[in-house]
Amino acid sequence: MDWNDYDTFGLRQVTDGNLLRTFQGNANYAINVAFSPNWAILAMGSDNSAIYLWQTTDGILLHTLLGHTGAVLSVAFSPNGTMLASSSKDGAVRLWSIPDGQLLRVLYGHMDSIFSVAFSSDGTILARGGNYSAIRLWKVSDGLSLNMLEALGGGSVGSVIFSAGGTLFFRLR
């Protein structure tokens, strides 16, 4: 894809609406965004299967992360900001290194769209929700599957998030 095909989108101050920064990227493909814990990096998951990482201070594109074969439905930063988790319609969860943009590992145990990923507050566990009636948990350090938690009523899990105390919240689709 040529950068000439891309749109400009921006970061605005909530209180007064002032435009703080613009970013080059295909806004037509944007599905989700997340800020790093220190607000220095903006990640965007896209319908074109790529993930874009920008510096928020100047709008410079740091990395384009490629590897998914379907739309990227969710992105989440680790609490320390050194990793990004992504999930996709391709049924894959991927862990990426933020400093260099390299793929760290692919987490297995799913075959369908994954709508949401979330890190525990200490960054040691990753959860996923998707077109499944259960939530899968992985150990981040080695990618081993820890557990499957049944969802209520057997419905798909649309989103997952951890509280600061380690409680897992989920929403059914």
Explain this structure to me?
It is built from no helices and 16 strands. Residues 1-5 have low confidence and may be disordered. It has a single domain (3-172), classed as YVTN repeat-like/Quinoprotein amine dehydrogenase (Methylamine Dehydrogenase, Chain H). The chain is globular. The chain is an all-beta fold and 173 residues long. The strands form five sheets. A four-stranded antiparallel β-sheet has the order 3-4-5-6, with no helix packed on it. Strands 7-8-9-10 form a four-stranded antiparallel β-sheet, with no helix packed on it. A four-stranded antiparallel β-sheet has the order 11-12-13-14, with no helix packed on it. It has strands at 7-12, 19-25, 30-35, 41-46, 51-55, 61-65, 72-77, 83-88, 93-97, 103-107, 114-119, 125-130, 134-139, 145-150, 157-162, 168-172.
CATH H-level name... which superfamily? Answer: YVTN repeat-like/Quinoprotein amine dehydrogenase
Structural class: mainly beta
CATH class category: Mainly Beta
Task: Write down the overall mean pLDDT.
Answer: 84
Q: State the end-to-end distance.
A: 33 Å
Strand residue percentage: over 45%
Rg from C-alpha positions? 16 Å
Total beta-strand segments: 16
Largest sheet: 4 strands, antiparallel
Q: Ranges with pLDDT <50 over ≥5 residues?
A: 1-5
Count of DSSP helices? 0
Reading the helices and strands in chain order gives EEEEEEEEEEEEEEEE
User: How many domains make up the 3D coordinates?
Assistant: 1
In CATH, the topology is named Methylamine Dehydrogenase, Chain H
